[in-house]
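Task: sequence design from structure.
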């Protein structure tokens, strides 16, 4: 059965690094949401595995077993042709390959296939939460997922075009034992209310990422100074940053303002849920 699949971008509204296990895996506490923007996959059963690519960010993406989508398909016992349209920059802190792999798992599960226990997490810490594809709290090494009710948030995503290696960012952490988010995430009455609470939280990877890629400083500065910005923060391990706004109109106005000054940056106004 042929299938068309949407793989939404993942945004870390918060990312607290709360510890590190003996095996090297970091413990996280993160509030995650998903954008109405993402990659697209087409699946078609075939006698042999094949992965083709298109889209503005297809260059440099592996089209063999190194790709998480390919690994996810093999883990599910599925064989066929996968076409992946890359709309999202890679190495950008917004899910990328994890979102694609999770979307494939979700689609095959909807066709009646069982996801083997542990497969999602074995593909990456973000894959389980990306499989949910809605607002959630992610803890542990990515295996503890709790749904969260948030208001729809209007945001601007900005990436200056630099690839930030996740390993280099984690290596640059000055502390790996930081406080988690509060035990209970409150119910928010408005996007402004939510942004005010988020401002009291953190992305613990942001300082290390800014040292690896100083361009992030400029992005955060421009987002924070944009008209109507409620909060500006980096997502994941960078370099994509986001700002939250009270309305879609305000987010689009900021996109125009920043895009006029930086036409070479990747800039997208999105809704987050």
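Answer:
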């Amino acid at each position: 059965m042929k299938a068309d699949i949407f793989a939404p971008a993942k945004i870390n509204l918060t990312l607290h690094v709360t510890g590190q296990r003996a095996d090297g895996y970091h413990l996280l506490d993160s509030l995650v949401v998903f954008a109405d923007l993402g990659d697209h996959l087409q699946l078609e059963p075939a006698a042999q595995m094949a992965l083709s690519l298109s889209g503005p960010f297809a260059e440099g993406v592996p089209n063999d077993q190194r790709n998480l989508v390919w690994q996810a398909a093999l883990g599910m016992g599925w064989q066929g042709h996968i076409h992946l349209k890359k709309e999202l920059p890679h190495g950008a802190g917004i899910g990328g390959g994890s979102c694609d792999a999770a979307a494939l798992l979700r689609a095959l599960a909807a066709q009646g296939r069982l996801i083997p226990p542990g497969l999602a997490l074995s593909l990456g810490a973000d894959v389980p939460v990306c499989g949910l594809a809605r607002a959630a709290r992610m803890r542990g090494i990515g295996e503890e997922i709790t749904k969260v009710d948030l208001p729809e948030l209007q945001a601007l995503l900005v990436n200056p075009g630099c690839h930030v290696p996740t390993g280099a960012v984690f290596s640059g952490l000055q502390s790996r034992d930081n406080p988690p988010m509060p035990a209970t995430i409150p119910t928010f009455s408005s996007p402004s209310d939510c942004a005010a609470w988020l401002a009291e939280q953190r992305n613990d990877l942001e300082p290390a990422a800014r040292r690896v890629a100083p361009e992030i400083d400029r992005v955060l500065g421009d987002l924070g100074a944009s008209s109507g910005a409620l909060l500006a923060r980096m997502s994941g391990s960078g370099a994509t940053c986001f700002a939250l706004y009270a309305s879609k109109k305000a987010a689009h106005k900021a996109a125009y303002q920043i895009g006029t000054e930086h036409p070479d940056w990747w800039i997208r106004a999105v809704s987050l849920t």
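The mean pLDDT is 97.
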